[in-house]
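Issue 218. Parser rejects a valid record. Input:
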Amino acid sequence: MTILLDAGALIAIEGRDRDVMSVVRAAKARSEPIQTLGPIVAQVWRSPARQATLVTFLRSVNVLPFDDRLARRVGTLLADSSTKDVVDAGLVAIGRPGDRIVTSDPDDLRLLIEVSGQHLSIIRC
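Output the parser choked on:
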C-alpha cells in the first residue's frame, strides 16, 4: 500500500496537523511508500525559506512526474468522469489497489475513484 498526498495533505503537513502527521508516521513505521505528483508540489510551494517543515518532509516523499503517459491516462479519466481537475485525476491515476489518498477534498476524488474502477480509500484531512 502507498499513501498518496494531495495539496491539502501537504498544507496540513506544513501546518503540522496532528492527524495527518500521525498517518504519515504510521506509514513510515510500516515502510509504506509516500507519494505525490510534481504539480501537487507546485500548488503548495512558495518559499523554501518559510516552508522548512514542507522542505524537510518532501525529502522523504516520492514526487512523481506528470509525463505524457500519465497525461493520457488522466485525459481519459477526465472524459469518463466529466470532470476537469487534472491534478486530482492524476492522483487517482497513479493509485494502485489498496492505496490511500490523504486529501482535504474527498468529494471530488470519490467520483474519480469510482469512475476509474480503482480500489482506493480516502483519508480526510
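Fixed in the parser; the record now loads. The first strand starts at residue 3 and ends at 5.
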